[in-house]
Amino acid sequence: ERRRRISRYSISKKLPLPPSPPGLPFIGNLHELGSLPHQSLSLLSNKHGPLMLLHLGPIPTVVVSSPAVAQHFMKNHDTVFASRPSLKASRALSYNNIDVAFSPYGDCWRQMRKISMCHLLSAKMVQSFASVRRDEVAALLRRVSDNEGTVLCVTEMLNELVSNVLCRVVVGSAMGDERRRLISTLVQQNSIFNTKVFVEDFFPRLRWLDWILGLDEKLKRHVKAWDALLEDFIQDHSISSNDSNNIIHPSADRTDFIDVLLQLQKDPNLDFVLTRDHIKSTLLDMFAAGTDTSFIVLDWSMAELIRNPKVMKKVQDEVRAVAGGEEMINEEHLPKMSYLKAVVKEVLRLHPPIPLLLPRESTEECQIQGYRIPKQTRVIVNAWSMGRDAAYWEDPGEFKPERFAGSALDFKGREFQFIPFGAGRRICPGMSFAIVVVELALANLLHRFDWKLPNGMVIEDMNMEDSPGLVALRRQKLELIPLLAQNIH
Ligand code: HEM
């Protein structure tokens, strides 16, 4: 066994490392990331290839930019690359990496992933929240109706919809505007913190610089605000569920995530200790991973449809035909809306909400396409770039949902040119949860209303650039005028 290990080691040592762009002393290639790393890295990989090695400070980081290479990392050698690096912001926000999204590959992750998949985001749970989605979409439609003919900030409205759904699913009840806004702000700040360059992540011995720059204090305050909020939720919840006088509990006919986690904590069959911190880290993950991502898909969908009036007409025709004069689209209508589904896929291809997915890290040395990938190499997969790869997509920059018509191509992690939810062991467990909210909301907004740009604005004025951060929201807020569709009363 020892001989075998030694010989494997010596063979791999002879292999070259992947090609690297030249770096600067000390900071290596850090300066190449820019404010929109998915775009800068895409340009860099055009020069250095789909498997390139960067040095972010002293940290070796492999950047994967083609579906063929991604398949090696996320399928053939998935176990080697199923871990996550421990970064300062995510560590602080995940109660020291004990959540699902940021924990290293190992027993803790396995347990937390099982809880998420089997108890929180299972098909049965997603189905059980159908009435929450229906109520919240109905409330959204009422709000739009009330503002018919006036300029409406669609971005804010969609953000509100998704965070209302998430709040009710996680906490079990609707939330006051102030709290909901606080959650939205915290979620948005998470995205910024998760891509902020902390000196400690690259030069641990210079961690005092983060303190001097005031970054430590900001992060501490942010984490404290989350913790206070989550503690409140858990405490309110324990009180209200023990209070027999509390007859009108909004979740009386459903269990919400806090319920499930508090029940599991007491379950004698659970083979590990589910602490308060595990619960808080899971709740934080659900808010953070669930809100921004789904609402970003809705926001880009509305923006692309406005820019592409023929697609808008076609999808409205489909939605209205399937609805058959009914006032509201329900979830049973959705399987019949194949063009709407193609629109959502096309949005996910061009605008994956997490364009670089979540970073991975290798737990062993590995050989890929003749290159040596050392242990503890960080891995960034550029899903944004792969969704626009001309070798896989015809007219990759064009918004053409037809490319998905009659095609089995899906986002479930099997076809590597299209992996907005990632792939392999760490694929997003919230995929079905997200898709049904997106499809239901979009179908209803298109069914009930026609949408126009505010007076004086033309399609060419729309800024289709991304904003910086872990998630890529459209830089410009979307403002539109809703008009009640003619045949709806
Ligand atoms: C359109 C919406 C969404 C998109 C595009 C998305 C995308 C992603 C991506 C790219 C990853 C990383 C996958 C990887 O490393 O291969 C991820 C992980 C994750 N997502 Fe989502 N997500 C969405 C919605 C949601 C929702 C609604 C939830 C829960 C309510 C959720 C919960 C998670 C969790 C817990 C992880 C971590 C999984 C792990 O590390 O094992 N996501 N998501």
From TrEMBL:
It holds the Pfam family p450. Its cofactor is heme. Keywords: Heme, Iron, Metal-binding, Monooxygenase, Oxidoreductase, Signal. GO terms for molecular function: heme binding; iron ion binding; monooxygenase activity; oxidoreductase activity, acting on paired donors, with incorporation or reduction of molecular oxygen. Heme binds at residue 428. It comes from the Eukaryota. Belongs to the cytochrome P450 family. This is Cytochrome P450 71A9. It comes from Platanthera zijinensis. The lineage of its organism: Eukaryota, Viridiplantae, Streptophyta, Embryophyta, Tracheophyta.
